Amino acid sequence: MVGGGRDAFIGAVHRMAMRLDGKIDLVAGAFSSSPEKSKLSGEDLLLDPSRVYPDYNTMIERERALPVAERIDFVSIVTPNRTHVPVAKAFLEAGFNVVCDKPLAFDLDEALELERTVQKTGKVFALTHNYTGYPMVKEARELVRRGELGDLLKVVVEYPQGWMIDLLEEKGNKGAAWRTDPQQGGASSCVGDIGTHAENLTRYITGLKIDQLCAEFTTFVKGRRLEDDANFLVRFKGGPKGVLYASQISVGEENNINIRVYGTKASLEWHQEEPNDLIVKYPDAPRRTYRRGNSYISEAAKRFTRIPFGHPEAFIEAFANIYLEAARAIDAEVNGQPVPADCDFPTVADGVEGMLFIATAVRSAKAGGVWTSMASEKK
Amino acid sequence: MVGGGRDAFIGAVHRMAMRLDGKIDLVAGAFSSSPEKSKLSGEDLLLDPSRVYPDYNTMIERERALPVAERIDFVSIVTPNRTHVPVAKAFLEAGFNVVCDKPLAFDLDEALELERTVQKTGKVFALTHNYTGYPMVKEARELVRRGELGDLLKVVVEYPQGWMIDLLEEKGNKGAAWRTDPQQGGASSCVGDIGTHAENLTRYITGLKIDQLCAEFTTFVKGRRLEDDANFLVRFKGGPKGVLYASQISVGEENNINIRVYGTKASLEWHQEEPNDLIVKYPDAPRRTYRRGNSYISEAAKRFTRIPFGHPEAFIEAFANIYLEAARAIDAEVNGQPVPADCDFPTVADGVEGMLFIATAVRSAKAGGVWTSMASEKK
Amino acid sequence: MVGGGRDAFIGAVHRMAMRLDGKIDLVAGAFSSSPEKSKLSGEDLLLDPSRVYPDYNTMIERERALPVAERIDFVSIVTPNRTHVPVAKAFLEAGFNVVCDKPLAFDLDEALELERTVQKTGKVFALTHNYTGYPMVKEARELVRRGELGDLLKVVVEYPQGWMIDLLEEKGNKGAAWRTDPQQGGASSCVGDIGTHAENLTRYITGLKIDQLCAEFTTFVKGRRLEDDANFLVRFKGGPKGVLYASQISVGEENNINIRVYGTKASLEWHQEEPNDLIVKYPDAPRRTYRRGNSYISEAAKRFTRIPFGHPEAFIEAFANIYLEAARAIDAEVNGQPVPADCDFPTVADGVEGMLFIATAVRSAKAGGVWTSMASEKK
Amino acid sequence: MVGGGRDAFIGAVHRMAMRLDGKIDLVAGAFSSSPEKSKLSGEDLLLDPSRVYPDYNTMIERERALPVAERIDFVSIVTPNRTHVPVAKAFLEAGFNVVCDKPLAFDLDEALELERTVQKTGKVFALTHNYTGYPMVKEARELVRRGELGDLLKVVVEYPQGWMIDLLEEKGNKGAAWRTDPQQGGASSCVGDIGTHAENLTRYITGLKIDQLCAEFTTFVKGRRLEDDANFLVRFKGGPKGVLYASQISVGEENNINIRVYGTKASLEWHQEEPNDLIVKYPDAPRRTYRRGNSYISEAAKRFTRIPFGHPEAFIEAFANIYLEAARAIDAEVNGQPVPADCDFPTVADGVEGMLFIATAVRSAKAGGVWTSMASEKK
Fold first, then answer.
1. For residue B264, which residues of chain A lie inside 8 Å, CB to CB?
2. C314 to each of C130, C161, C274, C306, how far by Cα in Å?
3. In Å, how far is C309's CA from the nearest CA of chain B?
């Protein structure tokens, strides 16, 4: 692991997700830009001190020096956005597989460069757009794929949070600080942090790609340097329309990402805060609630379930599903096998699409909310 | 009553709303543009045949000929949009008070003309934006007014329906036919029919007025002449932002108007399909669910409740609340008293604001989704 | 109407229920045991003073003296339990049809006597077990009848309220006072007032009759003279089992009557506080939510709906459905026609069954919670 | 680990719960009564083959032979009920700490014997009544403890499942087979398996102990040897009353354990299938929903949370909380420290109480549903 030292929320989540299924062992890491903090974090994690490194370059060098059977099979990158690409490139080029937190990169150029590196090295690269790890999100995708909804017409996807209603970046909150710092988080804060999850979730479930968007960014909290709220109108390729928003000043909301997809025959609805249910509505039949773990759930979703119906699974388990699938691919790669075709995890291409979304959003918003084409951004 | 003959949905609702509290008697009407149908509708309603008229002009003439104590105190207009203003003007100018279904008029010019007529005649004019009749909507307004939410930042208001996913206007559905006919419904179908409720509900609860909007209209059903889906980004006067949409092709949705209002201190949420609850969310305290009929409800909401908590009230009762308040005003007017200051019903000014919203939306949408100022429309 | 004077909750509900559909006019009444209060109540209701009577005997005498076409078609009895039977008998024997509030009688003997009177006079007698007026309760019955649930195994029916957590009967609350006074309310308070609704709702939906019950009565509030909480185990005829409880000291509960019915093939669930939904659960298929007003709803339920889906209906409308059906029967009786076979309202037989339930419950509870047979009570 | 071989549901859950927090390593086991199956299970788990044992006696012997620093710190027992006590006693007497699945024992005598062994050996013994591991269950206990509900009056606790509606024990389902076999599961099936969770959850949250109970057992599925449904009326010590039921034939229910606790000042409600919420209802204030992870949550609950609000935690995390606390105690014991006083996990005393509940229930049910005292059972 690179990053994820003491007090880092997302690093701890990655570690629980890795551990859950007993297939991944954390054996080495460079947990902080401070060598001292990295060392202490390694101690917290009961790691062999010889494999707790002061920085990621040292980690690459020393791990490569180990016999193949002993070195790490992949690295998990959980640093701030700014360093995702340099770290990932270095590991890929040194022959390691990579799991990386989202968003993929600092900007679109970097993302495209990383995509080329992945292609060139042939290594496995997984991006932890964790919400697509939920079984009922996978079920939603299956319902769309098998035509249960008919032709898609409209998507409404929301991601309201409220935790940034205060100027936390000036009150010692590190996560808030780097997210709202254009030098570290990138050109967007709210969209880069959570809007990109909304875009990814939509694309995962529906297969729809954004053609054009109209973005309205607002910075509601005085003194903040980037937007903390963003509303979008969206035109998808092929005709469907969308409403998408992300907000970090929606007081009282916790982590309420949710999606509704409307087709000609039915619609579906999923809420991350009650993730075991998937609601499907029909024009002329009772509403149906699909529930995780039941016999009627598709194989594509069922295999991401660990325990029986009524015993709820939640965020960590969904996150672990990303790792499970990445691990399947990595296991194949390490053993010189082809990556199984049905591996279901977000790739570098998803990350590039996300960065394109962010770049397009920033451009539209800066122009005052002008309809802007996604394609025009990609080089 | 004018309009509301056999099979007309909204006319029947108006009649139930009138009857509920035993303060209004339906005694006369011109129920259809067909004199024969008007007569039969009058029979259905057990009315005195001498007061069932072939058309509204005859109704005005004959009612005026009755002694003051016997003639109607007000007329309820439940015709298609096209005729709201001519009928309302005729009654107002003949000295009758008016309750009128929404939207106010066929277009903005007409609306402004009617506003002048109301001002000139000094009669009571009530517009049945019925969703503001719900007690918990009134409670929401009280919470905003007394600062429970702090300064307002954002509003999300949705009005999805699904009933027009088929081309009903060509299958004998009269309601669908006139709504989608530009000659009868006006320049907008979905926004005129339900989007205007969303705008009105937002303004009622928050007091916010739209400054600029960006509208995306879509006609999803082939052969339809007006939009059946409309998404908006909104900038309110003073800085708050909004997302608003109305849809009649959101399959599986019934009549799901709902609103979320976010402030600096708290947010609130109300769903028309579960109208007895109002949810308030805080950044640092448990969520609260305010429930109709309880001791802690404000007087402003409590007086619109008929039965104790846990005995749910719903759509008809909310509609009746509009009539109750209009009746209070009319009672005063008929008795030569000033209309009580606390009468709480939508007025002609609300209707003008709604028509301005529709006109601005149409202009923005026709321009391809360009931010358009509300003020620029009003003459 | 007899009873229902100023400040009486249930009388006002009856009147709204009568008025809603425009088929019943309140024209006469003896609204209070105080002639003066009866007179004032009549004024409130804008009635012809000549038909506002000081007591029910006078009412009977004078109404009978009117020409047939002018006299009342039926009487609505909304007095405390103590007087239901004497008043009802007097009206029935004088040739009037009767609608009566529940519970039917002061005790079982009285109930049986009234049943004989109804049979002897051949008049219509309707009991306002209003919860069976909800469309989705009727839908539940249809689902059971058509075998959707398979053979029934178990019923859980709950009726918690919390309003009597204080000793209201000594604080001027009249409703609490007569309910808890054995001389006025009968041998049971909580069971007589609301437990009987739970029994009736169960029997209506399932058709099951109680064979034996085990009752635990508790008086939690010091100074109260009758039970304010009652829990039951139930054995139904034919083998199904049940859990039933009623409580008026369940703080924070409003009027939360709800029922779950389990069969071999599926189960259903209905909650009065969200009455437009009916949930059906299957062992191997997604849960279904049936919603009032949709095309897929059975005719038996659909005809009790006034407005489209998504426009919620609630308590008053359900209550009005009892009146609508009673009125259909009364209309037939008054016109010398046979009562239509499909009239769907609670009858005197339902009331007798309810009184038998109360009597059996009291006997079981007094014996310390001994299993007691229903049959043994009926003479 | 003893038990939990291939295909055993609960063994896999225990392993995920152990792993989640990175503080417990599974290093040895006797996973099946079949040595061959034990060996294969050990391979699945990537264990050192030398520590995969053919039976638990061998395991004890060989682990004791290892140097103290290398041997296991505790054993996790996940076998059928029949063998809990013999296995636990053997490990305790050999000096090992024990975590054991519920119910504690085959019968009450055994349970009392085990209690004596635990006392005698001074080892840590934890029982995985996992539902008490949920943070919001702990919050519920805190609310009761600090008097938020006032004096407790009534508890309603339900545990419906539907999975045993078929005669699974004759269709190759091992879990169903041993549960319904009096020789393996004990004198009760449904109550032993899940009723005991309901009793434990009630006691954990409220601190109430059952004084007397009246039990109605039913075997609905033909051919089954023990009850599959059990309804109870309960009298708690000190006056509160209760309704409790457990069912495994409630078709369509999944794992719907839920509890409502009513006091003089407020009531609370928690549902395991939506475990992140805790609802508190007041007579004269809005309902409150307490949500996991928020600042206002008590320390007692907060320390059992891993990730922020809105990122739901669920069954596995709750289960892991039992292990976390047991591990804290075991860590102290192993290091010769006193067990921290605030360790929060179910003990052998809870298990004895549970066995007493089962024994009393069986006695009451066999007598035909007679009120039976808990105390009279304990020797």
1. 165, 251
2. 11, 18, 8, 11
3. 6
> What percent of chain C is helix, strand and coil (3-state, nearest 5)?
40, 20, 40
Enter the DSSP assignment of C126.
E
The token duo for D134 is: 């949920």
d(CA A46, CA B167): 66
Strands A152-160 and A258-263 come out as antiparallel
H/E run at residue D139: helix D135-145
What tokens were used for C328?
């259909």
Cα B331 to Cα B99: distance, rounded to the nearest angstrom: 13
From the list A134, A22, A107, the residue with the least C-alpha distance to A354 is A107
Q: What DSSP element (H or E) covers A354? A: helix A348-366
- pLDDT for res D6: 85
Q: Check residue D377 and give its pLDDT.
A: 54
**Sign of the four-CA dihedral D42, A63, A343, A359:** positive
- Closest by Cα among A45, A373, A50, A366 to A182: A366
pLDDT in tens, A131-181: 999 999 999 999 999 999 999 999 999 999 999 999 999 999 988 998 999
Interface contact B308, partner D, CB < 8 A? no
Cα dihedral C283, C289, C292, C298 in deg (nearest 10): -30
| Total count of residues recorded for chain A | 379
Name A83's Cβ contacts closer than 8 Å, sequence gap at least 6.
Answer: A3, A77
Contacts A–D by Cβ distance under 8 A: 105
The residue to which tokens 């003008």 are assigned:
B352
Q: Which of residues 22-51 of D touch A (CB under 8 A)?
A: 22, 26, 45-46
Mark yes or no for CB contact D262/C251 under 8 Å: yes
Q: What letter represents residue B159's amino acid?
A: Y
What would you report as the CA-atom Rg of chain B, rounded to the nearest whole angstrom?
20
Long-range contacts of D218-224 (CB under 8 A, 24+ apart): D218/C241, D220/C153, D220/C154, D220/D165, D220/D249, D221/D164, D221/D165, D221/D166, D221/D167, D221/D249, D222/D167, D223/D167, D223/D170, D224/D164, D224/D167, D224/D169, D224/D180, D224/D189
Whole-number pLDDT of residue B174: 87
* Nearest Cα residue to A153 out of B357, B225, B256, B160: B160
H/E segment holding residue A247? strand A241-247
Q: Measured between CA atoms, how close is D234 to chain B, in angstroms? A: 27
* Beta sheet of A97-100, edge-to-edge order: A2-3, A74-78, A97-100, A125-127
Query: Is the CB of residue C206 less than 8 Å from the CB of residue C212?
Result: no
pLDDT at C376: 64
CB distance D41 to D14 below 8 Å: no
Task: Please report the pLDDT score of residue C378 as a whole number.
Answer: 56
D216–chain C Cβ distance below 8 A for any pair: yes
The count of residues in chain B is 379
**Rounded alpha-carbon distances, angstroms, from residue C379 to C103, C116, C117, D72:** 19, 13, 16, 72
Measured CA to CA in angstroms, residue A209 lies from A203, A231, A258, A362, B17 at distances of: 6, 18, 18, 18, 47
| Complex-level ipTM | 0.96
User: What tokens appear for A63 in the block?
Assistant: 């791990």
C130 part of contact set with chain B, CB < 8 Å: no
C291 to chain A, any CB pair closer than 8 A? The answer is yes
Q: With contacts defined as CB-CB under 8 Å, which chain B residues touch D286?
A: 280, 288-291, 294, 296
pLDDT < 50: residue spans in chain C: none
- Which chains have at least 3 CB atom pairs separated by less than 8 Å from chain C? A, B, D
Answer for the pair C52, C38: CB distance below 8 angstroms, yes or no. yes
Report the side by side order of strands in the sheet with C2-3. Answer: C2-3, C74-78, C97-100, C125-127
At A195, list the tokens: 């809007």
C158 touches chain D (CB under 8 A): yes
Phi, psi torsion values for C121, nearest 5 degrees = -80, -25
